[in-house]
Write a structure and sequence with these properties.
acyltransferase; two-stranded antiparallel ribbon; Ketoacyl_synth_C; Thiolase-like; alpha/beta; globular; Peroxisomal Thiolase, Chain A, domain 1; 14 strands; EC 2.3.1.179; fatty acid biosynthesis; 2 domains; about 20% strand
């Protein structure tokens, strides 16, 4: 429909293993640095996982009152900090005039796992009376959205998508559709996660999804033949989506335009991707169809690329299904090679990287790509970022439970 609002990105904010602001993060990403280091948030002697992509030197009191911060799980602190930075980047103050037309949609895969573990230990030792009255509101995954709404004054739709590792991408896609259907003018959206906790690490370790490599610099190696599992990360990535009319009315900067969204289910297995990535292929096809562009008009794909044996092979197969011969002309990179896997927040930061790639004409690399895998034979932008003109790009996220989500962006033109 010609009267469907165009939706643009006017602000971005992030806290992640590569940096605690947008500028530092992008500088490190384009330089091909690794955010992975020794596991410090837990006793590494207790787990086969020895390394992690941790957020470093984050002080929530830089963004919020210390008393309020104590009522938030770490994942919510990341979300609030990133949202405030995104609003500042967008030069946007949520006044009473626009509050009811401004919504929040922030996803999280597992929410306040750290709070859950701390409070359960208290319960075991001292009984129910010692459990914090803030336990439930700190733990539930929707509280990132809830707290961001409270802190910013956004009174529009307030929601949270929980689709495992697709949570951030689904949330951005869902927020995009809210503006398209006319239910809001502005959305604060993305993903947040703080999963480096005893039970989360224990569960992923027994599922044999996490790498046991002790070489922090080279452990995350998507699409490489010697990949051995993902590296767990933490953080948040938030973008400000705005109707073009709203952005132009206030003279906002515009990074890029969001033009398509696809979401599908595998109906196959709780953890393994569907054979040949057929569910992911359908999500990509949907996003491309929704964008109104042809597959060959896309130059870049920020892949899910987890550094696990099945994901990287099947995602490559899915790209070939969707793009045909053009798959070999498509630049494909996995920024998880540097950030690790932020689970529900992955789609948030990877949307930011995709948008910045379009805006700056720089494609982030897949680092640690040393030994080609015959099953993964596309252009993975190995080891060094690449200057390239990008008209349109996609970002993929695939989650446990068979959740597949793809969002499409293009360079903004009047």
């Amino acid at each position: 429909m010609s009267d469907t609002p165009r939706v643009v990105i006017t602000g971005m904010g992030t806290v992640n293993p590569m940096g605690n602001d947008l500028e530092t993060t992008w500088e490190n990403i384009t330089a091909g640095k690794s955010g992975v280091g020794e596991l410090t948030r837990l006793d590494k002697n207790d787990f086969p996982m020895k390394i992690a992509a941790e957020v470093k030197d984050f002080d929530p009191s830089d963004f919020m009152d210390k008393k309020e911060a104590r009522k938030m799980d770490r994942f919510t602190q990341f979300a609030v900090a990133s949202s405030l930075m995104a609003l500042k980047d967008a030069n946007l103050e949520i006044t009473e005039e626009i509050a009811e037309r401004t919504g929040v949609w922030i996803g999280s895969g597992i929410g306040g796992m750290e709070t859950y573990e701390q409070q359960f230990r208290l319960f075991q030792k001292k009984g129910y009376r010692r459990v914090s009255p803030f336990f439930v509101p700190m733990m539930i995954p929707d509280m990132a959205s809830g707290q961001v709404s409270i802190v910013t004054g956004a009174k529009g739709i307030n929601s949270c998508t929980v689709t495992a590792c697709a949570s951030g991408t689904n949330s951005i896609g869902d927020a995009f559709k809210v503006i398209q259907r006319g239910d809001a003018d502005i959305m604060i959206t993305g993903g947040a996660e703080a999963p480096i906790t005893s039970m989360a690490v224990a569960g992923f370790s027994t599922a044999k999804a996490i790498t046991t490599s002790e070489d922090a610099e080279t452990a995350s190696r998507p699409f490489d033949k010697d990949r051995s599992g993902f590296v767990m990360g933490e953080g948040a990535g938030i973008v400000i989506l705005e109707s073009l009319e709203s952005a132009q009315k206030r003279g906002a900067q515009i990074y890029a335009e969001i033009i398509g969204y696809g979401a599908t289910g595998d109906a196959y297995h709780i953890t393994a991707p569907a054979p040949e990535g057929e569910g992911g292929a359908r999500a990509m096809t949907q996003a491309i169809k929704d964008s109104g562009l042809k597959p060959e008009q896309f130059q870049y794909m920020n892949a899910h690329g987890t550094s696990t044996p099945y994901n990287d092979k099947f995602e490559t197969m899915a790209l070939k299904q969707v793009f045909g011969d053009h798959a070999y002309n498509l630049a494909v990179s996995s920024t998880k090679s540097m950030t690790g896997h932020l689970l529900g927040a992955a789609g948030g930061i990877e949307a930011i990287f995709t948008i910045k790639a379009i805006k700056d004409g720089i494609i982030p690399p897949t680092i640690n790509y040393d030994t080609p895998d015959p099953d993964c034979d596309l252009d993975y932008v190995p080891n060094e970022s690449r200057k390239q003109d990008i008209e349109a790009a996609l970002s993929n996220s695939l989650g446990f439970g068979g959740h597949n989500a793809t969002i499409a962006f293009k360079r903004f033109e009047e």
